[in-house]
Amino acid sequence: MRERWFGATGRRVPELAVEGDPVIPLDEALVLEDVSDDAKLREAHEQGTPVVVRADSAEKILAALKRPEVASVVVPKDHHELLELDLRELTYG
Predict the structure, then answer these.
(1) Residue range 28-40: average pLDDT?
(2) H or E stretch covering 5
(3) Which of 43, 37, 45 is nearest to 5 (CA)?
(4) pLDDT-based confidence at 89, cuts 50/70/90?
């Protein structure tokens, strides 16, 4: 699994995980439902705040991971199959 920087914490986290997994400490992050608010994303990034996005589809996961401000994407507990997505294939074909 690929990893990303968790904001300015100096830690790396999986880019994709199931919500509730303690490896992604949501209480330390700005948690968003999507990546539509550019201002929030930029502000969090400038402040070093980790950004975590919730996603329940392949399209939402890809949209979130395209944003450099996003540290990790979490999927619902009942959508474990999303962890098995071939993100490279979906991105590059």
Answers:
(1) 97
(2) strand 3-5
(3) 45
(4) confident
Note the helical H segments in the chain: 38-47, 58-65, 87-92
Q: Which residues of 38-73 are buried (b: 16+ CB within 10 A; e: fewer)?
A: eeebeebbeeebbbbbbbeeeebbebbbeeebbbbb
Q: How confident is the model at residue 32 (pLDDT cuts 50, 70, 90)?
A: very high
| Rg of the chain, C-alpha, whole Å | 12
Alpha-carbon span 24 to 59, nearest angstrom:
21
Residue with tokens 């999507």: 34
Q: Which residues contact 3 (CB under 8 A, 6 or more apart)?
A: 12, 13, 14, 15
- pLDDT tens across 62-71, in order? 999 999 999 9
